Amino acid sequence: MLSDRKKKILCAVVDSYIESPSPVASKDIQQEYLPDCSSATIRNELSALESMGYLIQPHVSAGRIPSEKAFRFYVNELMCESNITSAEAEVIERYLSRKVGSLEEVMTAVTHIIAELTNYTSVVVKEDMSDTITAIKLLDLSNGKLLVVIVTDSRVLKDGMVDLPDDFDEHMIAQAQRWLNKIFCGKHVSEFINFDYPFALVNDEFSQYNALFKKIIDVLKKVSLMNGMDVEMYGENRTLAHSEYANVEDARKFLAQMENKERIAEILTNDGGADGSLTVKIGSDENAPEGCAVVTTRVSLGDNISGSIGVIGPVRMNYRKVLVVLDKISEIIIDLVGKGE
Amino acid sequence: MLSDRKKKILCAVVDSYIESPSPVASKDIQQEYLPDCSSATIRNELSALESMGYLIQPHVSAGRIPSEKAFRFYVNELMCESNITSAEAEVIERYLSRKVGSLEEVMTAVTHIIAELTNYTSVVVKEDMSDTITAIKLLDLSNGKLLVVIVTDSRVLKDGMVDLPDDFDEHMIAQAQRWLNKIFCGKHVSEFINFDYPFALVNDEFSQYNALFKKIIDVLKKVSLMNGMDVEMYGENRTLAHSEYANVEDARKFLAQMENKERIAEILTNDGGADGSLTVKIGSDENAPEGCAVVTTRVSLGDNISGSIGVIGPVRMNYRKVLVVLDKISEIIIDLVGKGE
DNA sequence: ATTAGCAGTCGGGCGTGTGGAGTGCTAACA
DNA sequence: TGTTAGCACTCCACACGCCCGACTGCTAAT
Questions:
Q1: Beta bridge partners of B122
Q2: CATH number, domain A133-224
Q3: Measured between CB atoms, which of B157, B234, B237 is closest to A252?
Q4: pLDDT of A335 above 80
């Protein structure tokens, strides 16, 4: 456990670093946060915090910068709460509270307003769980490949390709198709994702089907991953304005990660959490994109539809502001939905 | 008109500059493209081409780089045609020709494959012209504001706000609403965009409506701009990999322009052109984003639905490759659609 | 445990110098 | 008149070296 003074100092380092991204010196901390100690004392504490993994010294004659561990500790225990400014609240309400229109338009509006207020990238994911599988079709392309097609309720189709073992004839394909339909029809596409192959279903004499089945289910998993998910992102540019992306290589790495919408959607949705609850993930250790932090909140948007709203920025993010904005937004959206569409 | 030799030299400069983005020297041209002339002769020609506006000399002891004018001339008259490599054609066909699924999925696939093959940003715009206006509603928010809502066929709603003049009561608002519905119901939302206010409709005693009407129609124009348009973009990252975006400021400027989807959609769609025809716009003079070139092709996707496929990259773009890829893609898509959805 | 003071380290900004790439110009030549 | 060789000139890009200043860690005193 950290002593009170260590906590104060760590908090000072993080606060200062969030405000301006240069290593924090002992003297600065003394002057601005802890006038009761000498800078030497603070230096000792900093040194201790460094060996505990909370701080990093870029080089020997530089101050300290917080590690990802420090940011996590900061968010969980140190950060003082703050309230949304009335100006911000007003902006949000003006934009959203009278918004008429389709869910898509509200999503777009939400991403724009969050990016505007926080100056980070904003993502909204809508998950529609009501869409169920009507049929699975296997089409022999007669070149050793099998086309796997999923047909769902809402006529959304997904398709993928599988290599066909040599010894398969059309009867066997038809048989495989019957089995697949028996297992999956009427279920939600998301069921593939956690589906364990039920070997029991296939008795010994049909063991040759096993390999094919596994492949097909893998394809179905992959192909259905984004089904019913709608991802909207805005303000990649905003995040790039921050100093961690001062060189193009880092900027491009960030953008490359943002292009993987499946990944982003997964990050935003994979931990449940009640309506309006806030989650913070910092760094790739917590499954956020590398060098990034993700703040998420969830709102339910009616039967079988749920939404996740998130902000993606550098680990050195202004968490206080982001949390406050997301909180307000989710509150308003829950309110909007509650009033009945 | 340019002499043959000037054309050859200009073509050499552009080709060489596209291949590697450094100023092209007279000696290089001589060695690689025109061994029959001396470098001095070429220098004279270069100097002439420069004063004609085709070339730019970054500084006195540097070679020449092509101006936007040179690129336009190159695309229109100099560039030698080339054919798609069989490898590329195969990639495209494998990806697309067996693609089953919704239009949205095909759009996504198209953006990905184009970005992959060209290494530039790719955009697809779908325009659905079949959506018509069912009703226009004016809601008095009783704070001096009027909420304008458009309801269409497909239950898409759009809304915007207008300041209400002081002397308007609910009867007048109802009257205005009746007029608006009379004019626009049953028409396509795009009709706002080129709509000229028909003063004749409003006779003198109702001239007070004029100001309000104009405002409302402006809002309707703005609000309906993207109606029925679906913009999908991929590979902003790819374009940034090119050397013109080596510094972050330029990269951010590019990205900021890419965030304006309305603008991009307009660039891609605003010049008709037959199915499969290719358009090249170079530089902001031709309404492309600043410093960028846009290559576009159009495909019709059935009744009242048309699509535009585009590639956005730096002015120094590999036009030959982009044209070839877009050509192949549009061919396949026209084929796909032709076979009957 | 805290603190003042001092020696030591390292990054980064800045001026200088130089090599090399490429031109424009001139004068000679076909 | 068009082409060419040769030369003087320009200017960028890069490297080198320098030094200033920012901070620290350590030591010794309180």
A1: B234, B311
A2: 3.30.390.60
A3: B237
A4: yes
